[in-house]
Amino acid sequence: MRLPFPLVAFAILGTATTAVASSDDAWKEFAATVEQKCLAAAGDMLDAPEAVVDPFGSARFGLAIVTGKAKGTDTMASHICVLDKQSETVEIGSELSAEQVRIKADK
User: Fold this and answer.
1) Vertex 71 angle, CA 68 and 73, to 5°
2) How far apart are the C-alpha atoms of 38 and 67, rounded to whole Å?
3) Per UniProt, which keywords does this protein have (predicted)?
4) In sequence order, what are the residues at sequence separation of 6 or more whose Cβ sits closer than 8 angstroms to the Cβ of residue 97?
5) Residue 6: helix, strand or coil by DSSP?
6) What are the CB-based long-range contacts (under 8 Å, 24+) for 91-96?
């Protein structure tokens, strides 16, 4: 099925306009939602978790790295957290050690 050009153009422009129309406040609210939901989801695995949130995420997902002490240990651990933008459900990845997450400046 072929769609008429004006309909296709409208769909493309409508999507672009929506992205441009997103205000700084909306992105801040989105980042706060990702942080809150990811911290809550990681609460069973980490003591005093902290989150670093990708301010925009990907096209479909909010993204964060949640770090804290693994429950019942003195070992720092991180988890990747993914929030589905549409359903706002959260998934937490497996435990990553501080060594795995560390940025290696000289390779």
Assistant:
1) 90
2) 10
3) Signal
4) 75, 76, 77
5) helix
6) 91/41, 92/38, 92/41, 92/42, 92/45, 92/66, 95/45, 95/70
Residue 82 gets which letter from DSSP? E
Mean confidence (pLDDT) of the chain: 84
Pair of tokens at residue 40: 């809550």
Q: In the chain, where are the structural domains located?
A: 24-101
Taking the whole predicted model, whether its pTM rises above 0.85 is answered as no
Question: Is residue 61 exposed (0-12), middle (13-18) or buried (19+ Cβ within 10 Å)?
Answer: middle
Spatial distance between the Cα atoms of 15 and 9, rounded to a whole number of angstroms: 10
Asked whether residue 34 carries a pLDDT value surpassing 70, the answer given is yes
